[in-house]
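User: I'm writing a short report section on ligand binding and want a predicted complex to refer to. Could you take this sequence and guanosine-5'-monophosphate and write out the structure as tokens? A short remark afterwards would be nice.
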Amino acid sequence: MSRGEQIYEGKAKIVYAGEDPDTLVLHFKDDTSAFDGEKVEQLASKGKVNNQFNAFIMEHLQAAGVPTHFLHLINDTDSLVRRLDMIPVECVVRNRAAGSLSRRLGVEEGLILEPPVFEFFLKNDALHDPMINTSHILSFGWATEDEIHAMRRWSLRINMLLTALFAAADLILVDFKLEFGRYEGELFLGDEFSPDGCRLWDAKTLEKMDKDRFRRNLGGVVEAYVEVARRLGVPLS
Ligand code: 5GP
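Assistant: Sure. The structure tokens for the complex follow:
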């Protein structure tokens, strides 16, 4: 399986054309960024760990009936996915207050949110991914009413599935970000799910096991990702 032309380079991944025009190759980089790309570092092995972590989560979700773009692992750092027409919106689900929600609403980190909070953000680095609502999505034509409902429904279903998966590994799924796209008129989960795009706390100590370790200069970033993978039973090479 060879990579075709480079289509896009993001902060943590490079996207290449696949051999079949309906597919893409995702290459997971060691680059780690925060604060809209203001802080960037190379963390050895992060690309490899996230590629294998993402494959495990996507396969878990697929087995539970979630349509995802994931096809198969190609090698340590690359995966083959279906080529989606991406919706330029980030879907965030929160089970506990943290990050931008705590700042925006002035609530203590860790507050349990029941029912979970669901939010949309516009995927736009230059504008710092502003929060948007369904009215913006409809007026600007980023997605249809049906797609908005489906993104919300799938995000909350994925939250139930992954909250249980992580709880069995003594981890609290605090919050996470998802992106969706269209393939032959149907909605599919795209992008990636890794500790770069979610918050995970140790259930007993509440120690942070995700990208907040990088954002807050706590060190041991990849070590924490590897520990999460080990607890879940993700096979790492
Ligand atoms: P917050 O809004 O608190 O910054 O982020 C909420 C959750 O979504 C966190 O788990 C965070 O890692 C994830 N998230 C939000 N925006 C992005 C993004 O642009 N990239 C990545 N990788 N994760 C994001």
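A remark for your report: The two ends are 19 Å apart (CA to CA). The pocket of guanosine-5'-monophosphate is lined by residues 90, 92, 98-101, 129, 175-177, 196-199, 211 (CB under 6 Å).
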